[in-house]
User: Fold this.
Amino acid sequence: QVQLVESGGGLVQPGGSLRLSCAASGSFFSINAMGWYRQAPGKQRELVAAITSGGSTHYADSVKGRFTISGDNALITVYLQMNSLQPDDTAVYYCNADVDVGWNDRYDYWGQGTQVTVSS
Assistant:
């Protein structure tokens, strides 16, 4: 009973910026971690960035120095600031939540995705 909704995607030129948002709703105890994944046509889905409830962050090597993940203290809303976008960043971006939905009851949930296209 957890829903994740992504927003903020669109078409940008190389070198441009976008900020993606992921908002969680439903019934759950807490969110342990949130991550942003992306999947380009014909490629596997890959982890782009993640943040834990303790504030630790992780970035894929391909986006280090360009992307920043952030969120509120409860990770109800998480953002991905994307700068210096390149054509290889073109993909559908998905948020993923590691959620405690009950005592000793922990699951992953996925949003529907938002399209990011980087092209001149």
